[in-house]
Amino acid sequence: MSLLHEKHEKFFNRCLIALPAQAASEDSNKLAIIYFSLHGLQLLNKFNFTQQELKYHEKFIWDSFFIERNEYVTFRSTMYFQESGELFDSGDLSACLFALYSLMILKSDFKRLNWQKLFNFLVKCQIKQGSNKGGFLQTSNETDLESDFAQADIRQCYMALVIRQLLLDKTELKSDIDKNSLTDFILKRLNHNGGFGSQVFDEPHLGYTFCAIASLKLLGFPVDNLEQTKNWLVHRQVSYPEVLYPVMKDYAFHRNIDTGGFNGRENKLSDTCYSWWCSGSLYLLNQDNLKLINVELAEEFLLEKTQNTIMGGFSSVPDGTPDPMHTYLALASLSLWNCEKYKLDEIDALFTISKRLRHYRAERDSVVISY
């Protein structure tokens, strides 16, 4: 089956205009939905907004999500926090990154953003002491320890480092985050089997593993030495022998329909998003590692089992409802495997955005990319 470009274009555009009632609970993820939709159109080479539309979307983000305090600036996850007072309207890292990525593609001049104050927000999110020293919280931290509102998380570390890199593209930092403690924080979550977990001794998870590898790469750590991690990643692709299915037909975790896909943990089902978290992780370790997976089977899982041929978009699992995140990560996977074959913009695996857009913004801002 081919990639349905026009249906996916319509799907992303619908997501930018209106969502069904069951998506109401995702309001706090609105900036993520905007990011996946805008950058999904970019990957499809269907980013065709007029100047007026670009300005409209840009103004909506600045007016609804931007937070400016005396000491720092950032972005809130939902516009309704504006009414809750400063204690609960402190912004968070994920909203900040999704807003910055969205404003980048909307060609914002960022004149409203004080980059040094944005760096101040990053510093406030890093834990300064205790067992999780070096890690990042999702929201600003006034105590230097764990917060009642958040928990140290490798995903937040990755987003903080990407924001830091965007800052380096814009300006020279007078100080920096604690990179040594952050590296230690991440490496402590490396499991004996090669994957990374959310907390020390936790079961490894593919999403956290991608964030860990990308973070270590941004920190200059030699990730190509993580041989055990490479081995764990390769075994995330589901490909059981045909003879197994008739014998274990009552075992729910061996389903023929999952063949070719990737699971996030041992003995779990395939999910569209793990195609990206696994492929991207292997690629970041070494570009030649993509030869270690069966790309033909992986493409078949996405195009024939999770691609929605009626509405457009990709679902997380076969016969599921498509959503912007899984659609974007499916396109990112296909781009990484063969962008020319699928007529997609080339993905930057480290930043999870179009390579063309990433390089254009960095060159335009006249600062050398350093990672």
Automatic annotation (TrEMBL):
- What are the alphabetically sorted keywords of the record? Metal-binding, Prenyltransferase, Repeat, Transferase, Zinc
Q: Which GO terms describe its molecular function?
A: CAAX-protein geranylgeranyltransferase activity; metal ion binding
In its UniProt entry, the species of origin is given as Candida oxycetoniae
Alphabetized Pfam families for the sequence: Prenyltrans (PF00432)
- Provide the family line: Belongs to the protein prenyltransferase subunit beta family.
InterPro entries this protein is in? PGGT1B-like, Prenyltrans, Terpenoid_cyclase/PrenylTrfase
The Prenyltransferase alpha-alpha toroid domain sits at 3-353
The answer on whether this UniProt entry bears the keyword Lipid biosynthesis reads no
Question: What residue ranges are annotated as transmembrane?
Answer: none
Keyword Ribonucleoprotein in the entry? The reply is no
- This protein is called CDC43
